[in-house]
Amino acid sequence: MLDETGSVSIERRALVGTSWLALFRLVSQLLSWTITILVARMLQPSDYGLMEMAVIIPGYALKVSELGLGPAIIQRSETRQHELSSVFWFSLGIACLLAACCYAAAPLMAHLFNEPKLVVLVQTVSVLFLLQGLQVVPSNLLKKHLNFKKVGQIEILAVLAASLTTLFIARLGGGVWALISGFIALALAQLVLTCFAVGWLPRFHFSFDDIKPYLKFGLLISLQGTLFYVYEKADKFFAARVWQPVTLGQYSMALQLAQLPSEKITVLINHVSFPTFVLLTSDRERFAKFYLSTVNVCATLVLPVFVGGFLVGADLVQILLSEKWASIGRICEFLCLAQIPVSLNAVNNFVHNARGRASWSTLNTAVCATLVPLSFFVVVPYGLEAALIPWFSTYVVVSVVWIAITTRTIGITPRMYLKGLFVPFGATIAMATAVHLVAALGDDYLRSLGLLWGLTVKCGVGVGVYVSLLWLCDRRVFYAMKSLWKR
């Protein structure tokens, strides 16, 4: 794809760069999860609970400390050296301020969560502000120039450094320090590799007037990040106030396992679909058709995974994480079911953003950031199992309402929407029935095979039934997934 001068077009550069980034991200995630499983077998649930407590409030400050300056650098058509220098020193100043506040607030956080061990953990986490503040400009210059291949290389090397650090300290019996050290090693490796790749150095220049245009754009992005973080972390925040670290660690690991498919599959689909939605905004009929196709592909991929997780999640947890995590098996299974409406709802914000209605998606996030925390505030005093209630009440209601608003806006009736889900839902029910029958009728035989091989048999039956029914009932989904992959 060449432009009029014969050079490679921006679209082609972006496509190639994004492809490299996707490949490196896949490899880094496989590496990260392999190390995560190994480390989880060495550490205790209480270590993960302490880690969640230590990073939940600093994590929010860390997320918004950039103040949207990174996206502002990417968004601006022209960035001058003196402006970037001012942004660098401003970011570093904010980072130093927040690091000092985080360090000083460590005793308050320990009192808030009634956990004395948090003092030194939170004080150590404060160094992350400095490491992030130093790389705001260089890391976003890489993205601005569409150098996604280099971004992917940096990501995989940083994940490798963090994973090896975590594994090494865990083997030495470092407990929660293995997890904290992994976070710091990741940020430090990203900083060093990014600065080396960009080769950019700031001048000794600062003017607040240089920063104003960047802040004007960036503060809105920062607001959206704030709302989403509140929505995403409310469960762990209120749980940390009431539960012991071991209980919080169990919930955190169960949720992490349950959300893995939606984080990888759904995010990839949205990443590919959003540019297409943008291109189709002027054609209402094609826009609606592509939306239904995207939802169908998403449902086809995630429904069997989540329902399968509900059927065999307890066995999978015991095999991967060892016997000491076996108590989270049932919680993990129900959390898998809860991810179905969340995944089907994920594409809707991108639809509104593509149509120039970012305020709609921001309002939806604000509603979630209000209702979800309130729900968890009410239920967490009643224990780990009670934390499932908001997932099957508030999350479902919010997701269904937002899907209804989105489909009505783009001219899709409920019948059209449900028709697109009929085949994957039907095939998933048939898959679940087959797995249940195998487990019930062949229980003695599966036990004789052992936990691993028994799980392999059930998964094999489920996959075989699901794929066969899809091929018989609607082969178009295979062609749609192939087309989506090419895009």
Order of helices and strands: HHHHHHHHHHHHHHHHHHHHHH
- Low-confidence regions: 1-11
Distance between the termini: 14 Å
Largest sheet: none
**Roughly how many Å is the radius of gyration?**
24 Å
Q: Helicity, in percent? A: over 70%
- Overall tally of structural domains: 2
Q: Average pLDDT value?
A: 81
By secondary-structure content and strand pairing, the structural class works out as mainly alpha
Q: Tell me the strand percentage band.
A: under 5%
Number of strands: 0
Shape designation: globular
Task: Kindly describe this structure.
This protein has two domains: 1-242, no CATH class; 243-487, no CATH class. 83% of the residues lie in helices and 0% in strands. It is built from 22 helices and no strands.
